[in-house]
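In this section we walk through a basic example: taking a raw amino acid sequence and producing a predicted 3D structure, encoded as discrete structure tokens. The instruction is simple. Fold the sequence below.
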Amino acid sequence: MFKTIVLALDGSETSKRAIPIAAELAKREGSRVVIAHVEELIAGKGGGPVHAGEEAYQREIREQAAELSGQGIETDVKMASVMVGGPAHAIKSIAKEANADLIVVGTRGHSPVAGLLLGSVTQRLLHIAHCPVLAVPPEA
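The resulting token sequence is shown next.
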């Protein structure tokens, strides 16, 4: 059913909870996993990554990809960069390019009101993705 699964990771603990879910699905279905990571950049003269630990996040994501590969799961990593506020569209593009059947993404666990005020990559993906989105809650 799922030939290609996009696993969206941002380096947070809540996004990491999606890894075993995606791995289990990939093993069961014989799927390929494409890990998508989007670096958010601050616009302007002194622009740079929003997160100070971006290099560490990228290194850790590559290590997580190697672990999945070590479990016999074909795994690729796709990195993208966007200005603040656009990771969902970049993940959608990665998923479309990979011909994904499913996007797996963690949720931050904000209250419903905070989610409305702050916005959410997961929430946005649910509206714009061309394929199903599996949202993994923090308690998973």
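Looking at the output, two observations stand out. The first helix runs from residue 13 to 16. The CA atoms of residues 58 and 77 lie 10 Å apart. In the next section we compare this with other chains.
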